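pipeline: protein-struct stage 2 | run 1193 | glycine oxidase
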Amino acid sequence: MSPTSTSSDVLVIGGGIIGLVTAWRAAQRGFATAVVDPEPGGGAAQVAAGMLAAVTELHYGEQTLLGLNLASARRYPDFAAELTELTGRDLGYRRCGTLAVALDADDRAHLRELHALQQQSGLESQWLSGRECRRLEPMLAPGVRGGLRVDGDHQIDPRRLAGALVAACERAGVVFHRTWAERLTVVRDRAAGAVLADGTEAAAGQVVLAGGSLSGRLAGVPDDVLPPVRPVKGQVLRLTMPLRHGPFLSRTVRAVVRGSHVYLVPRESGELVVGATSEELGWDTTVTAGGVYELLRDAHELVPGITELPLTETRAGLRPGSPDNAPLLGPTGLEGLLLATGHYRNGVLLTPVTGDALAHALATGELPEEARPFTPKRFSTATALTEQPA
Ligand code: GLY
């Protein structure tokens, strides 16, 4: 074999947390696995706040996704413990809970509806008065009118998670090609690897496309299996909390302010993550004065004391949005090509279940039961036509 040719059982295109967990789980199943990415562990996880918010981020019409989100949330304690034991790295996994609060009568009505939906869905959440919210979190604004306490919505530090997944992959023998994938190789109607930007021809028995918001742009992927993902920009701020006089915030606090979601995620390290805008602006990752202003303005309405804190970082990332806000997982209409993309707002939360689902699909050719609704084939024209009611 020439020096510019390599071969593996599984080639994962994209080394963000979704590509990495897929590669790690595939390698654990005995597949010789390679990952293509110029910067493994980079991507949206470097920006994300890391809320594991299956319950507080529940939306009408997304009950199917809720099932997958809960399945992944249930896996998190063991998943985090396994990664930490294997790599010696602390992931910042914190079972601190979340408090979603309302600042005015409209917000309160919206939260009441969310509470009703959570109860219909059998989820645990508790309605609190404004005073009860402030007793839990004394830094909250005096104007808070009520809130929902959800002790089951936790957090993790996505940067630590990404670093640990790179380490776990290395330990499991995953090979890293630190470059871009330029084109999918298709031989006799079957995905057979990729040509990389450095000229390497990386042959593979199966290819997993896990390129986040870039997944729809890989050359060589036939149009009918190209994932319909788009970038949805999120600007996120990082501040530093004082650790001297007890916690500034002891749990994630969130609200909808003037129609925009704002959340404050306090880490044990003293980092306070404030997010996030949601902007359909293509590939733009500029941090704007307006974005920072709106986040600080809304966060300040919730927790006025934040204006005293050092602002240490501003950054923007791209969520991989899909047409139904749910991920695309598993085999496609092109033999040998699988997808793990389109995780939109839930990439960090869905990391454990995605790794398990893709490893199962690589080994058996089929998705496990819980992941079947997320087959990429739900977007293919042929499937849509055959599923039309008579
Ligand atoms: N899940 C939080 C966000 O997408 O902003």
